[in-house]
Amino acid sequence: MSKKKVGVILSGCGFKDGTEIHEAVFTLLFLDKEGVEYICMAPDVEQTFVVNHLTGERTNEKRNVLVESARIARGNIKNIKDVNPEELDAVILPGGFGAALNLCSFGTEGKNMSVNPEIERFIKKSHSLGKPLGFICISPVIAAKVLGNEHVKLTIGNDKATAEVIESFGAKHENKNTDDISVDEKYKVVSTPAYMLGPGPKDVANGIEKLVKKVLSLIK
Amino acid sequence: MSKKKVGVILSGCGFKDGTEIHEAVFTLLFLDKEGVEYICMAPDVEQTFVVNHLTGERTNEKRNVLVESARIARGNIKNIKDVNPEELDAVILPGGFGAALNLCSFGTEGKNMSVNPEIERFIKKSHSLGKPLGFICISPVIAAKVLGNEHVKLTIGNDKATAEVIESFGAKHENKNTDDISVDEKYKVVSTPAYMLGPGPKDVANGIEKLVKKVLSLIK
Fold first, then answer.
1. Domain tally, chain A
2. Which residues in chain A have their CB less than 8 angstroms from residue B195's CB?
3. What is the spatial distance between Cα B178 and Cα B60, in angstroms, rounded to a whole number?
4. pTM confidence score
5. Helix (H) / strand (E) containing A9
6. What is the secondary structure of A97-160 as a DSSP string?
7. Predicted confidence band at A1 (pLDDT cuts at 50, 70, 90)?
8. Residues of A in contact with B205 (CB under 8 A)
């Protein structure tokens, strides 16, 4: 039996302007522990902005989402436009503000957000092929926007304002703790709050481990 | 009983010019799992260079080690010059080329390397206070340079050229596998090869989990 392959969509490197690093690394760890091959992917676009993670202030730098994501992937990463969803068994999106800034515009436009066309195409196609999808931290807003009219069940923890945006797209939000997951068996969508709630690596890792195992169990 | 505190010295964010991200995140995870508070630290210096992790090529950018390390630490990081080793129970150094480029000059000068004065002071002081020290991946070259004349036992895996440099400083190298550790009980120094050998997150995490547990067991 050949190894299962799971795509991991990254959005930069650092939670204030890119992928939440811990969430991404735990995703790769638990996929590797389950004997699954992971394919890291990111869009080849400029970051919406760059934040100095020491001071929290925006800088004047320009950074590229694919290039910065390669730091987490140890150089082993693909431009998402070059990946065919049919080659993968499942897809997982870690969070961080990068998911809300570089993969969609939730971070700047709230409920008026749009999703990067490559990301939207990839998720829609994967979903239509019956591939399970995992969404971590803030990334369920992307699931809600792209799949919400199917009343897909999602969690981003317990943040009321974000939950309202998710429900405004037609998805159903349920409150969950950091070390727990929301599972929509019908649509094969799994989500976990991770650093939307914190408090630290141990609890976030527990939630992501459950998400990875559940996503893998939903592969046909 | 108050929580134990362990310092984690970072060297940027990304294995080709900074901290090996997976190694750092696993260190934080296993410290958190053991109920230990971690204090991330880095020197406030410019990176030796910046590498595009997608192409592997050097760029013309300037990045600061403390600022980039803050991405892994989620903003919760201190300038190492402001930390008193007496406040910590142990210290761990993840690897990545950052350890060999930004914390010392092994990456550019080999056996003629020197160690950043703040890092040297911190490690010497911690060691003289009897604090256990953990070194991951390439960072044992720093231990060898600073503590080598005590014939401290170390591993960087099985790379002959690096092992020879380590022994040239007076330390003793022993070959180890990725999921194993080298322990010098007398000098309270623990090391593990991590991504000096690879092959991926699962094995690297196993070695780092052993290292973290052993370092904590050596605290007086």
1. 1
2. 74
3. 34
4. 0.98
5. strand A5-9
6. HHHHHTSBSHHHHGGG--B-HHHHHHHHHHHHTT--EEEETTTHHHHHHHHGGGT-EE--SS-H
7. low
8. 29
Average pLDDT over residues A74-93: 98
Confirm if A176 and A155 have CB atoms less than 8 A apart. yes
Tell me what ipTM this predicted complex has.
0.97
What is the distance in angstroms between the CA of the first residue and the CA of the last residue of chain B? 14
Amino acid code (one letter) for B96: G
Pairing label, strands A133-136, A189-192:
parallel
What is the extent of the structural domain holding A115? 5-217
CB contact under 8 A, A33 and B71: no
Q: Does B219 touch chain A if contact means CB atoms closer than 8 Å?
A: no
B46-67 pLDDT, tens digit per residue, is 999 999 999 999 999 999 999 9
A40 strand-pairing partners: A8, A77
Is the per-residue pLDDT at A21 higher than 90? yes
Q: Mean per-residue pLDDT for A191-217?
A: 97
Quote the pLDDT of residue A2. 81
Number of Cβ within 10 Å of residue A130's Cβ equals: 11
Nearest CA distance, A152 vs chain B (angstrom):
31
Annotated catalytic residues of A are: 137
Nearest CA in chain A to B29: A201
**If you average pLDDT over residues A175-179, what whole number do you get?**
97
- Four-point Cα dihedral A130, A134, A135, A141, nearest 10: 10
Q: How many CB atoms lie within 10 A of CB A33?
A: 16
| For residue B1, pLDDT beyond 80 | no
pLDDT of B80 > 70? The answer is yes
Please give the span between the terminal C-alpha atoms of chain A, in angstroms, as a whole number.
14
How far apart are the CA of A171 and the nearest CA of chain B, in angstroms? 30
Q: What's B87's DSSP letter? A: G
Q: Which CATH number goes with the domain that contains A204? A: 3.40.50.880
Four-point Cα dihedral B216, B184, B106, B38, nearest 10 = 0
